[in-house]
Amino acid sequence: MAVKKFMFVNRKAPYGTIYALESLEVVLIAAAFDQDVSLAFLDDGVYQLTKGQDTKMIGQKNFSATYNALGDYDINQIFVEKESLEERGMTEDDLMPLVYEDEDDDWAEKPSIRVVSRAEMAKVMAQQDVTLSF
Questions:
Q1: For the chain, which residues make up each domain, given as ranges?
Q2: Are 80 and 115 in contact (CB under 8 A)?
Q3: 31 φ, ψ to 5°?
Q4: Which CATH code for domain 5-133?
Q5: CA–CA separation, 93 vs 106, rounded Å?
Q6: pLDDT tens-digit profile of 5-56?
Q7: Rounded Cα–Cα distance for residues 132 and 29 (Å)
Q8: Which residues have a Cβ under 8 Å from the Cβ of 7 and sit 6 or more positions away?
Q9: CB atoms within 10 A of CB 107
């Protein structure tokens, strides 16, 4: 089976609907089958990567720590739309420090998140074979 480029687009807040958790589960499954997986976070989806999430008051399980496993699945292309961050009063500093180990650079830890403009995001999305939106 040929490797396809899959992009999972996340537009919803992490809690209140099942979209964020379902997306994360599908992403991990696709990566387990050696597909070329990338993620995009736009609109309220940027909240999925916010560090320091606490879900006790809403009575839902906090699954945000699972994003730290993405690097272990060779998922190191995580795109966050700059304008979506700015529209919500956020910066890259508000996001979890997700990393992967670069085997071509003696397993050095490198950041997985790339903050890109809306125009750059459109170009990245156009390069994908399959785009799934959550």
A1: 5-133
A2: yes
A3: -65, -35
A4: 3.40.1260.10
A5: 27
A6: 999 999 999 998 899 999 999 999 999 888 899 999 999 999 999 998 888 8
A7: 14
A8: 37, 38, 39, 40, 124, 125, 128, 130, 131, 132
A9: 10
